[in-house]
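Our preliminary data section would be incomplete without showing what the modeling component actually yields. Below, a chain of 372 amino acids is followed by its predicted structure, encoded as C-alpha cells that our downstream tools consume directly.
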Amino acid sequence: MRTGWRIGRVFGIDINIDSSWIVIFVLFSWSMAGGYFPKQYPHWTKGLSWAMGVMTSLLVFASVLVHELAHSLVAIRQGEKVRSITLFLLGGVAQISEEPKAPLQEFRMAAVGPATSFVLAGLFYLASVLLAPLSQPLHASAFYLAVINIGLGAFNLLPGFPLDGGRVLRSIVWKITGDLKKATRIASLSGQAFAFLFVFLGLFRILRGDLGGLWIILIGWFLHSASVRGYDQVAVRTALRGLNAGDLMTREFETVYPNLPVQRLVDDHILKKKGRVFLVTDLGGDLKGIVCLEDVKATPRDRWPSVSVGEIMTPRDELQAVTPAADGNEILARLTARDVHEVPVMEGGKVVGIICRTDVLRELQLRNELGI
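Predicted structure:
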C-alpha cells in the first residue's frame, strides 16, 4: 500500500511527499551526480558532483511545488478549498475540493501553472548569468534548473487532460458547448492520444538502443491512466450533482446493540431479514455508530463468531452526517473524507436515513446503464 509523509504546511495547505517520490529523487540525483555533471564538468570531484546533484534535485522538486502552489492559490482565490499538495513519482498534484464552477475559472487556474514555470526558468537563467563569474557549480545548477523549468512548462502546455494545456483546452470547449462532461471527454481523448504518442516514441528509442525511452513510456502510461481517471471522476461528479441524500438513503433500518456477534448479525438480520444497514445503539437508545454490509464483508469470515458489531461499526464520532437535501457530491466527499462506508442522514436531530457506499455505486451504475 502506498504511503506518504507530511513535510510541512504552506498558506494553510498540507505539503506531502508520496513514497514513490523517494525513488525518483534518488534516480534524479544519481543521473546528475553520476552522468550529467561529470560529463559537463569532468574536473569536478565526485563529492562536488554528488553535492550539486542532490541540491539541484531538491530545487527541481521545489520548482514543481511552486508550480502546484500557483494552481492552489488561484483556486483558493476563486473560493475553492485545497486540502493538500503531494509530490510523487512524476511530479506533483494539488487536492482541490471540486471542479471549477465556470470555464474562466478553469482557464485561470490551469494557465497559471506553466506561466509560473516559465517565470522560474527566467529567474534561474538570470541567476546563472550572475553566478557565472562567481561560482561554476552554482552557475551550472541554476542553468540546469532554468532548462528543467522550461521543459516543465512546455510539457504541461500539451493539450491533453489532465495536463494544464488539457485543462485550458477543456475550458475552451466548455465555454463553447456549455457542457463540462463533454469538454472533459474531448480533453481526455486528446490526453490519451498524446499518451500513445509518448509510448510509441519511447519504444522507438528503446529499439535504437536508448534505454532512456523507458522514461518516455512511463510518462505515456501515467498520462493515459490520469486522462481516463480524470474523465471518470468528472462523470461521477456530474451524475451525482442532480441527486440528493433523500434520493440515495435507505429509510428502513434496524437497530442492533454493540455486543452483538457479527455471526448473529449475519444469520438473524442480514440473511433472514435481508437487512443491509443498521443503527448501533446502547440499551438506553443512544447512537453508538452505524454498521453496513460492507463492514461485514471487510471482516474475515472465520472471525465472525468472535468479533462484535461494536468492533466493526463506524463509531459515532467518525460519522459525517448530512441533511436530506445534501448534494450527491457532498455525500461522496463525506464518505471519502475519513474513508468510511456510511453516512447518516439527519433531520431535526434524528436519523431519518442511512447512505452506504454501495447505495451511491448502485445509483451510478444504473444511471450509466441508462445513459443518463
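The chain is about 60% helix and 15% strand. The mean pLDDT is 84. Preliminary results of this kind motivate Aim 1 of the renewal.
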